[in-house]
Amino acid sequence: MLELVLLGTGVVLVVNGWSMLGGSRLPGAIALNLLLGGMDLGFAGYYLATGEGYEAFKLALFGITYAWYGINMWRNVTNHQRLGWYCLLVAVAAVPISLDTFRGGDAWFGSFWMLWSGLWLLFFLIMGLGIERISRFVGRYTLAVSLGTCLVPGTLIASGAWQL
After folding, report:
1. Which residues of 143-155 are buried (b: 16+ CB within 10 A; e: fewer)?
2. What is the pLDDT of residues 112-139, one digit of tens each?
3. What's the predicted TM-score (pTM) here?
4. Fewer CB atoms inside 10 Å of the end CB: C or N, the chain?
């Protein structure tokens, strides 16, 4: 399940990062954000039903972000301020998740959570505070995070080259 979530997240981050770099919104971006948001929330529901609330919480952070952004795009919402403030809450929540992951002995995913926290913080700066001048930097950071924490690890895990 982890590799599917990582690969899906990687694809969505590439699409969303590309649009921040001034690229046109790629066809299917709305559907992709909604699909991945729904998938993450569905997996979160599964984890919740099996008594793994912490895993459910972590997936819900991603799922709500993508579903909310997809709904905003679908409805042609141009003011993403509320989503931006949600991103701040997620950025803060991701720090103790990162520290907990490091304490559990997983330096890779501990680092990933810290990078994701930084990404959500940057989304807050753009959407919550309206600091648009950093959009191109955030777009590049989004693409780098997508490759380094999602697409490459997801592919390695799916292929069996990275055993968790």
Report:
1. bebbeebbbebbe
2. 999 999 999 999 999 999 999 999 999 9
3. 0.94
4. C
